[in-house]
Structures are given as structure tokens and as C-alpha cells.
Amino acid sequence: MRVGRVASWSSTANVVFAAVLAGSVAMGAGARAEEPVRIGVITDMSGPYSSLSGPGVVVGTKMAVDEFGGKILGRPIEVISADSGLKADIATGRAREWYDRQNVEMIVESSDSGSAVALQKLAADKKKITFFHSGTTALTNQDCSPYGIHWAWDTYSMANGAARAAVQAGGKSWYFISADYVFGKSLEADASKVVRQLGGEVVGSVRHPLNASDFASFLLSAQQSKAQVVGLANAGGDTQNSVKQAAEFGLGREQKIVPLLMFDTDVKGLGLKVAQGMEFATAFYWDFDDRSREFSKKFFAIHHSMPTMNHAGAYSATLQWLRAVQAAGTLDSDAVMKQLRSATIDDPVFRNGHVREDGRMVHDIYQVRVKAPEESKDSSDILKVMQTIKGDDAFKPLAESTCPLVKK
Questions:
Q1: Stretch 349-374: mean pLDDT, rounded?
Q2: What is the per-residue pLDDT for 1?
Q3: pLDDT 10s digits, 67-81
Q4: How many angstroms separate the CA atoms of 234 and 181, rounded?
Q5: What span, in angstroms and rounded, lies between the C-alpha atoms of 352 and 178?
Q6: At the topology level of CATH, where does 37-153+293-363 sit?
Q7: Which of 37, 259, 350, 355 would bridge 232 by S-S if both were Cys, CB 3.0 to 4.6 A apart?
């Protein structure tokens, strides 16, 4: 009797234990199923590029997630963000933590070229897709990756548009004032190539530290060069400060000031009185057509300013990644990249785009001119689109790419 009772009790306990274990497994599976699909945003939140990138890049990313419905493959989507501090070690440290501890699936970068190159290498090791909005063409050349996409613009496309227009307008001799890091050097090199190809010459250059406040010595060197054009190979606050101080020096009276990279935020920071008549290339302008206006007005309602090409680029990149994941039916990076490379990129930001084997997303860009104060209807009405430059003409030809992924 005693033995039988013990056996009966043991069978019951096993059944109960099995039921509890099955319930725990089911709960675990449910928890995994509901774990968010995480997208990381690494950008300059507080430095000289914070207005052209920064919180607006997070807004653009979240707008795409909301438009998509907030879920992918039955799981909620979560956007997390971090400030790069414009330092590669901070950017890669945060990205590594995200990959290893938070299962981040994709990163949108909009910080600086040094951080971008470092993130490209880390993402390649982790086999994670990254969309880049920093300028250096190294990302699609010697530092290209099967998992990296250079999305909105690069130094080649911006320099090509701005320098070409200035040379064709008669600016044959050039002097460069450039930011002394990867981005500035890349922008200067790309512009110099265009100038020389069109029969112009580069008479000299000088480099300044990132986030400089005093450009007097650099502008004096440019003035003494007697060059017809002073090319500014910098961005953000550095561009604004150099243009303002150039006006104070009177450089614009005898030498043409040509910013090789400008954002809407730079024009607004300078004011139309100072910036009027300047021409440059841009990958996006909010007032281009009905689709861009509709998207931009929604962005404005959240961010209280119209989107720059980095803000709009983050929205586009995130939306296209989500579409590719849905089409592939998986988060596997190789499958998603295959889908992205086969897709035609079409959204409110970019039209008729495609992703090349070197990771460059090719699309149309625009040559724009800053309006005079009397031409502007309101504070956001700042640019006039002069011409559309087809993507194959705007970006570096694939045949010139040094990316080892390109089949020669």
C-alpha cells in the first residue's frame, strides 16, 4: 500500500511538473515573439551637426515606423537613439552594446565620416545592415561592406553639383577652406577633381579644426590667394561661421564663396540677406512637389522645422528597410539586402532610386539657389530648384569604384 501511494504521488508530481514546464516554455516563446524589433539611431545630438541631423533624424526614423504600422513580422518596432559626440569610439561602443545586449537589427547613422567608417567595419563583422548619412565616399570604395548602404548623399554628389555650377559660371581658379578630418578632405578632393576636369585650377587650400569659431586666418589666406572661388569644404556650424565671417571680410565682393555642402538649416542660420544667391546641390528639398510637401508638413508638426536631407533620408531609409523585411519575410540581413538591391526606391523623399553593388543608393539630386528676402513667402520658403541632376550623373560612376564587391 505504501509503495503504491508513493508511486501514485510521483506520477501526479511529474504531470504537474510537465505542465508547469510546458507553460514556462510557452510563456518564453510568447515573450520572444513579443520582443521588439529594435532600430538604432546614432547621430550628433549636441554638436555642430545637431540641427542638420540630431533629433530630427530620430523623428524621421520614428515617422517611418509609425507610417508602417508600428509592427513587423508580428513584433512591435522600437527606435532607440544615442549621441555619437562626433567620436568614433563612442559611436562604435554604443553600437556594439546595442548589437550584443539589445539585439538591434539595423542602425541609421547621421553623425560624422570617422564614426561612419568605424560603424561600417563593426556592422560588417556583426552582419547588420547600416544606412549612412555622412559624406565620405570611402563607404562605397575601399571601406565598402555587403551590409552598408550610403543613402541620401555623399561628398562626390554634393561637390559635383556645386563645383560644376561654379566653374561653368566662370570660376576657374579655386582656393579651399576645409574641415581637417575625413569628411572635409573627401569633399575637397572630390570638388578639386571636378574643377580640374572642367579646365580650372586649384591654387591652394587650408584646413581648420572641427567646430571652429574663428576663421580669420583661414579667410585671410583665401583672400591673399586671389582665387576667383573660395570653396568651403565643411558643414553645419563651421559653414555658417565661415560664410558669416567671409561677409565681414568682404570676400564676396571680389571672390565667390561656394559652400560645397549646405543644408536648409544652414541657410536659415545665415539668413537670406547673407546667403541669397548661393548655389549648391541637395538630395532633398521639402517644397519640391506634392509628395515631399505632404511628408514635410507632417515632419514640421513634430519637429517645428522643415526636414533637411538627413532628416528625410532617415525616414526613407527606415521605410525602405521595413518594406524589404516584410517582402523577405525575415530579419536575416543577407535576405533583406538582396531585397533592397532588387527594389526600386520610391517614396516621398527619393524617386527612381536603386542600390548598387558598392552600397551606393543612386537617385536624383537638385541644384538649388538661395532666394532673396523679397522672393520668400515665409521662413521655410528659402530655396529655388534650378535643375534636376539625374542620379547616374550625380554620383561617382560604378566603374570608378574601388569597392572589392564590384565585379570588374
A1: 96
A2: 34
A3: 999 999 999 999 999
A4: 10
A5: 33
A6: Rossmann fold (3.40.50)
A7: 259
Q: In the chain, where are the structural domains located?
A: 1-33, 37-153+293-363, 156-282
Minimal CA–CA distance to 77: which of 89, 67, 85, 92? 67
pLDDT at 140: 98
C-alpha span between 39 and 107 (Å, rounded): 6
Q: Are 104 and 61 in contact (CB under 8 A)?
A: no
Q: How far is residue 202's CA from residue 326's CA, in Å, rounded to a whole number?
A: 49
Cell numbers of 34, please?
A: 513579443
- Euclidean distance between CA atoms 90 and 95, whole angstroms: 9
In whole angstroms, give the CA distance from residue 401 to residue 408.
10
Assigned C-alpha cell, 193: 577633381
* Residues in CB range of 83: below 8 A, 6 or more apart: 43, 44, 45, 46, 90
Length of the chain: 408
Per-residue pLDDT band at 31 (split at 50, 70, 90): very low
Span 278-284, mean pLDDT? 94
**Fold of the 156-282 domain:** Rossmann fold (3.40.50)
- Give the rounded percent of residues in the chain with a pLDDT score beyond 70: 92
For residue 15, the tally of other CB atoms under 10 A from its CB is: 10
